[in-house]
Amino acid sequence: MTLLKLSPVFLMAGLMIGGINALLAAPIATVYAAIIARVTSKVSFQDSLEASVDNVKEMQLVFFILMMAYAMAECFMATGVGAAIINIALKLGLTGKTVAVTGLVVTSILSVATGTSWGTFAACAPIFLWLNHIVDGNLLLTTAAIAGGACFGDNIGLISDTTVVSSGIQGVEVIDRIRHQGAWSIICLVLAAIIFFGVSVGMGLPNVKGNPEEAIDQVPEEVWGVLQEKNASAVTLLNQVKEGVPFYMVIPLILVIAVAIKGVPTLACLGIGIATSLILGSFAGTVTEITQILGKEGLIYTGFADAGSWVIVMMMWVGAFGGIMARMDAFAPISKFIARKAKSVRQLMTWNALLCILGNAALSDEMAQIVTIGPIIKTITDDNVEASEEDMYKLRLRNATFGDALGVFGSQLIPWHVYISFYVGIATAVYPLHQFKNTDIIKYNFMAMIAVISIVVLTRTGWDRFIPKFAMPSEPEVKLKKKELAVEK
Fold first, then answer.
1. SS3 at position 479
2. What does each C-alpha distance from 367 to 162, 307, 325, 455 come to in angstroms?
3. In angstroms, rounded to a whole number, what is the distance separating the alpha carbons of residues 144 and 445?
4. How far apart are CA 260 and CA 48, in angstroms?
5. In-domain check, residue 130
6. How far apart are CA 464 and CA 454, in angstroms?
7. Cis peptide before 27 (omega within 30 of 0)
8. What is the pLDDT of residue 215?
9. What's the CA gap between 74 and 86, in Å, rounded?
10. pLDDT tens digits for range 74-124
């Protein structure tokens, strides 16, 4: 009976591993879950429907945030915000010793601005791989640097779909999530930058300076076609980098980060980013007519359409799936197992982290891991931890960070993951002088290594208390419920 109740999770995982998109896998698994709930727990289809709708209602704000996030990402890519970030960094001058660490920093900032690791890698790979060629840097070191940096914003970016979805599943505000993990994320980035530079020096790489325009000119014609197909926004970005945009186009990103730190609600932050990028873009010449903004193919329309075309619909089905699974208490066996094994709240939370890593490896997709494992670790925490609402909220923040960080950064260390396959495909297409392998992305991906290892170690040891705002409440403020009560529940 236990395995039968969990079988909808196995079905969803199997469908995704088999190549079925989450947009189809989620509704199939939801319908199957309703049937299983009827068979195992005598839950009527009407009750399953009500449980689904109630769970989806709790995610309504997430849907609005996703639409605004996608719209802001489009605006930032098209108006020159992303290009300004890259050009400012490249003006500093790149050498073989600095190309990798610069790539790490630029992709980190750009991924925060655009909210997409895939788009960031597609946009930056042609620049940095050919720059690396010009300055005679280490190809694999630079590739790993931009791969790890591209994931930075996907883990902490205000407009990242993985950040929004993982926060929504745990029922926490995106702004609170960013504050919770902000210092930890920046520390990971700084440590990775130091290591990348140290390894570059240790390799004895040269000090020859490179020219970004020369690098873009060296991109083969067929590569432009690949980029147009894979990510059209990357082509726009590259052209803006070559032609140049005013440096003041970084102001929208600075404003968004500043108001987010000040505690302005997420939707308002996104609105400020969209408005300022469009206004400044009109002065910079990247926005020339109103149809670019409000037309059928306009930036805001495109952003809303992209969000609604799959991610919001997928989230609704995932919400419905979670509602039915909760209605028949499907995750109780896993919760009981961890409750028996864990001797403290920290041990329980470490188990949650390990579940995310295992789920990511099994599903080979970070979003699939977030939506599949997320409800499980939420249930485990809610069922087994006794604490004030404030402290429970902090634990949910950590769970949201687990799902996102161990999904996005964890993907960089799993050779068969779809993330790695995408990066290898893009890298091979834009730099055909080398036939990339999946292990090439992993070998020097210090950013991913530091993030994955540190969050597990800090959670288990309690050393997270030394990082501002990242401390997780510990005993006796939080404690495990008495075993017999948890098991009975």
1. strand
2. 7, 14, 19, 19
3. 5
4. 38
5. yes
6. 9
7. no
8. 72
9. 17
10. 788 788 887 887 788 777 777 889 989 999 998 898 888 777 777 778 777
Angle between helix 366-384 and helix 332-341 axes, rounded to 10 deg: 70
List all residues 6 or more positions away from 223 whose beta carbon is below 8 Å from its beta carbon. 126, 429, 430, 432
Structural domain boundaries, residue 159: 61-305
- Alpha-carbon distance of 484 to 462, in angstroms, equals 27
Q: Are 86 and 110 in contact (CB under 8 A)?
A: yes
Give the Å distances, CA to CA, from 234 to 83, 90, 143, 231.
10, 17, 17, 6
Residue 362's CB is within 10 A of a number of other CB atoms, namely: 18
Q: Evaluate whether residue 378 is within a structural domain.
A: no
Specify whether the CB–CB gap between 350 and 459 falls below 8 A: yes
DSSP string, 19-66: T--HHHHHHHHHHHHHHHHHHHH---HHHHHHHHHHHHHTTHHHHHHH
Residue 285 is assigned to a structural domain of this protein: yes
Residue 23 resides in a domain = no
State the CB neighbour count (10 A cutoff) for residue 204: 8
Count the alpha carbons within 13 Å of 421 in the hemisphere toward its beta carbon: 6
Instruction: State how far Cα 354 lies from the chain centre.
Output: 18
Closest C-alpha among 467, 486, 474 to residue 345: 474
SS3 225: helix
Confidence of residue 58 (pLDDT cuts 50, 70, 90): low
Number of domains observed in the structure of the chain: 1
Query: Is there a contact between 195 and 447 (Cβ–Cβ < 8 Å)?
Result: no
Structural contact between residues 421 and 382, judged by C-beta atoms closer than 8 angstroms: no
**Spatial CB neighbours of 379, under 8 Å, sequence gap ≥ 6:** 326, 331, 335
How does residue 231 score in pLDDT terms, banded at 50, 70 and 90?
low
CA distance 283 to 319: 43
Beta-strand runs (E) in 192-339 = none
φ, ψ for residue 343, nearest 5 deg = -100, -5
Task: Check: CB of residue 65 under 8 Å from CB of residue 270.
Answer: yes
334, pLDDT greater than 80: no
- Spell out a b/e string for 50-74, using b for 16 or more CB atoms within 10 Å of the CB, else e: ebbeebbeebeebbebbbbbbbbbb
Do 436 and 427 meet the contact criterion of CB atoms below 8 Å apart?
yes
